[in-house]
Amino acid sequence: MKLKLAIVILNYNGRSFLEKFLPSLLSHTPDYAEVIVADNASTDDSVAFMKANYPQMRLILNDRNYGFAGGYNVALEQIEAEYFCLLNSDIEVADGWVQPVMEVMDADARIAAVQPKLRSYADREKFEYAGASGGFIDQYGYPFCRGRMFDTVETDNGQYDTPMDIFWATGAALFIRSDVYRKVGGLDADFFAHMEEIDLCWRIRNAGYRIVVEPRSVVYHVGGGTLPKNNSFKTFLNFRNNHFLLIKNLPARRLFPTFWARLFLDNLAAFVFLLQRHGRDFLSVYKAQFAVLSQYKKMKAKRKGMRFEAYKDVCHTSILFQYHIRRKHRFDGQSFH
To answer: How far apart are CA 85 and CA 118, in angstroms?
Structure first.
C-alpha cells in the first residue's frame, strides 16, 4: 500500500536540531505518515546519532552535499508517497499540525502545495521570517509574506488566520503532491539553496495548480540554522537566485524591463552594504551579477515549453516603494496585490 505522507527532513550538520526536535515530531506524526531523514553528507556526527538513537527510522545517505534543492531531489527520488512534506530540521511542530493540511489537499486536487503558519521559535507570538502566513512576490521579484515585510515581522494576533491562495509556500514546511513535484521537475538544483521553493511554486502555478496557506496548522521555526543572516554566501545566493527565478518564470515581455530595473536596485543595495561597512556583502552582489550573466542562457533554456499563467498573480507594485516611501510595513491585500 502506497504511503500517504512522507515527512522528509534534509539534514546537514544539524545533529543538535535532530536531537532537540525529532522527539516531538515523532509524537505528533499521524499513523499514516512516516518521518524520513535524508542526510546531505554531514561532517558532524548526525548520522552516528541517528543510527544510535533512531535505528528504526529510515535514513537516506546522500553521497555529497547537494544543497537544499539538489539534496531533496536526490532523496525524494527514493521515496514513494502520495504527499511529501519537506520539513526543516530546525522546526518544532505542534499537536494536530498535519491533519488540517491533509483535509485541504484531499478536498481539492487542484491544490498542489500547502504551508502551515510559521511562528518564531525564539519569540513564539511573532511570525517567522521565512514564510509567516503565506508568501507573495512583487513585480521586481522581491518576496514578502503575510506577517513579514523585509525585516519587519509582526506579532501574530490572528490577523492572518484566514486560509487563502498564496503565490509561494515556504520550503521550511512545505506539503506538496508527489506527482506534481515530479511533473514540474522538482526543485531546481542550480539554485543550491534559497528561493528554490519560490521558483518551484511559480512553476506549479504556471502549470495551473493552486498553492494555499492553512493557518490552522502551526509550526515554530528557529531559522538561519545552516546559513546565518549575516553570511556573505547567503547574500550571494539570494541575489543570484532571485534573478534566476525571474529569468525562468517571467513572460518574455517583462524580462528585459525587469532585468534593468533590478540591475539598478541591486547596485543601490550594494552601495548600502558599502555604507554599512559590509564589504563581503557588497562584493557578493557583484559576484551574483557575474554568475547571472554567465548562466543566463542556461536559465533561459529552462523556459522551453512553459506557460506563464501565474504572472497575473504577481503583485504589480513595488514593495520597496510601499515599504520605504509609503511606510506600509504590514500586509494589505489592496496595496500588495
So the answer is: 14
Portions of the chain given CATH number 3.90.550.10: 3-221
Secondary structure class of 323 (helix, strand, coil): helix
d(CA 155, CA 193): 28
Q: How far apart are CA 197 and CA 187, in angstroms?
A: 7
- For every residue of 35-66, DSSP letters joined together read EEEEE---SSSHHHHHHHH-TTSEEEE-SS--
Q: pLDDT by residue (tens digit) across 179-197?
A: 999 999 999 999 999 999 9
Q: Which long-range contacts (CB under 8 A, 24 or more apart) does 223-230 make?
A: 223/90, 223/120, 223/121, 223/128, 223/129, 223/130, 223/172, 225/14, 225/17, 225/88, 225/89, 225/90, 226/12, 226/13, 226/14, 226/193, 227/193, 227/194, 230/278
Name residue 328's amino acid: K
What cell numbers appear for 230 in the block?
Answer: 549575516
As a CATH number, domain 3-221 is 3.90.550.10
Low-confidence ranges of the chain (pLDDT < 50): none
35: how many CB neighbours lie within 10 A of its CB? Answer: 18
Global confidence as pTM: 0.95
DSSP 191: G
Each residue's pLDDT tens digit, 262-290: 999 999 999 999 999 999 999 999 999 99
User: Alpha-carbon distance 168 to 196, whole Å?
Assistant: 10
Measured at the CA of 195, the angle between CA 279 and CA 131, to 5 degrees, comes to 105
For residue 36, give Cα distances in angstroms to 65, 79, 196, 228: 17, 9, 21, 25
Q: Quick one: pLDDT at residue 2?
A: 84
Angstrom distances, CA of residue 25 to CA of 129, 175, 290: 21, 15, 42
Q: How many CB atoms lie within 10 A of CB 104?
A: 19
